[in-house]
Amino acid sequence: MARFGVLCCAVVLAVQLVSSLPVIPRADEVEDAKNALLMQREDLFQGDIAGIDMDNRNGILSPTKRWTNQKVPYVIDPKFTASQRAVVEVAIAQINNSTNVLLVLRTTETSYIFIQAGAVNTGCYSYVGRVGGRQIVNLQVPVPGYGTCITVGIAVHEITHAIGFYHEQSRTDRDNHVEINWNNINPNQRHNFNNYDEKTITHFGQPYDYDSVMHYGKYDFAIDRNVWTIRGKEPYEDTPIGQRRGLSPIDIAKMNAMYPIPKNPTTVAPTVQTDAPEPTN
Ligand SMILES: *[C@@H]1O[C@H](CO)[C@@H](O)[C@H](O)[C@H]1NC(C)=O
Ligand SMILES: *[C@@H]1O[C@H](CO)[C@@H](O)[C@H](O)[C@H]1NC(C)=O
Ligand SMILES: [Zn+2]
């Protein structure tokens, strides 16, 4: 299988990259690099977004793609082990605790996310926004030598797609904030670095966020994995991007702008602008 070969060799290259770095990376950075490869499927839009024709991107500005009553019912695949399930539950609790989005175990709702224990070579992927019916959030389970999607940060990233968010570097204004090294990206993968106009997405008046859990990492989709593909614009070229720990403060602000009603009426509503387009230049 072609994809097996690609994934296998990409993992080997990532390990080589790590061993050739002058500074010994933290263990979690090594893991992040390996796991990030699972978010770079060649057959999926931007590597981990399902259900989108490469030329027809439906924007989440569309109210029909947002979740009704801010409620996202979920089912966790019974095939996860107890410890894998626990990681997924922490990711769900993190989103649920820090935003207005209400994640609830599905009872009879027709639209819900099914968090699937993905097999080898399925990667990590999700749809963007509410599709209608049962929609899969796929998290490849750990297999020795392959990396895994079972980390809190990756699970938060994929569930955040399902809640209604694209990648941070898809923003209309991203060229003011990041540089893209097109020469190090295969021509057939360059579409992953497209951005969108304001008819498709909104950033709710929030600033560009290098710390977003939805931002690509510096080496994502690289041909030569020792060389960056995306990085902050001078003087931010060394600013870390691609963190997979969890929602950043700006991620939270944007999620609450999309879903503005606080869950608990005694909680003070976050002060965020809604749908205010940023000035462009
Ligand atoms: C999310 O929060 C709501 C209200 O704060 C709570 O009722 C619900 O059980 C929480 N869900 C999860 C999965 O933590
Ligand atoms: C979410 O909130 C619950 C209840 O307050 C708490 O027990 C739990 O540790 C929190 N989890 C996360 C990941 O924030
Ligand atoms: Zn993604």
UniProtKB/TrEMBL annotation:
<protein>
    <recommendedName>
        <fullName>Metalloendopeptidase</fullName>
        <ecNumber>3.4.24.-</ecNumber>
    </recommendedName>
</protein>
<dbReference type="GO" id="GO:0008270">
    <property type="term" value="F:zinc ion binding"/>
</dbReference>
<keyword id="KW-0732">Signal</keyword>
<keyword id="KW-0378">Hydrolase</keyword>
<feature type="domain" description="Peptidase M12A">
    <location>
        <begin position="58"/>
        <end position="263"/>
    </location>
</feature>
<feature type="binding site">
    <location>
        <position position="157"/>
    </location>
    <ligand>
        <name>Zn(2+)</name>
    </ligand>
</feature>
<keyword id="KW-0482">Metalloprotease</keyword>
<feature type="signal peptide">
    <location>
        <begin position="1"/>
        <end position="20"/>
    </location>
</feature>
<dbReference type="InterPro" id="IPR034035">
    <property type="entry name" value="Astacin-like_dom"/>
</dbReference>
<keyword id="KW-0479">Metal-binding</keyword>
<dbReference type="InterPro" id="IPR024079">
    <property type="entry name" value="MetalloPept_cat_dom_sf"/>
</dbReference>
<keyword id="KW-0862">Zinc</keyword>
<dbReference type="InterPro" id="IPR001506">
    <property type="entry name" value="Peptidase_M12A"/>
</dbReference>
<dbReference type="InterPro" id="IPR006026">
    <property type="entry name" value="Peptidase_Metallo"/>
</dbReference>
<feature type="binding site">
    <location>
        <position position="167"/>
    </location>
    <ligand>
        <name>Zn(2+)</name>
    </ligand>
</feature>
<dbReference type="GO" id="GO:0004222">
    <property type="term" value="F:metalloendopeptidase activity"/>
</dbReference>
<keyword id="KW-0645">Protease</keyword>
<dbReference type="GO" id="GO:0006508">
    <property type="term" value="P:proteolysis"/>
</dbReference>
<feature type="active site">
    <location>
        <position position="158"/>
    </location>
</feature>
<dbReference type="Pfam" id="PF01400">
    <property type="entry name" value="Astacin"/>
</dbReference>
<feature type="binding site">
    <location>
        <position position="161"/>
    </location>
    <ligand>
        <name>Zn(2+)</name>
    </ligand>
</feature>
